[in-house]
Amino acid sequence: EAQVTQNPRYLITVTGKKLTVTCSQNMNHEYMSWYRQDPGLGLRQIYYSMNVEVTDKGDVPEGYKVSRKEKRNFPLILESPSPNQTSLYFCASSSAYSYNEQFFGPGTRLTVL
Amino acid sequence: GQQLNQSPQSMFIQEGEDVSMNCTSSSIFNTWLWYKQDPGEGPVLLIALYKAGELTSNGRLTAQFGITRKDSFLNISASIPSDVGIYFCAGQLNRKAAGNKLTFGGGTRVLVKP
Question: Contact, A92 vs A105, CB < 8 A?
Answer without folding.
Answer: yes
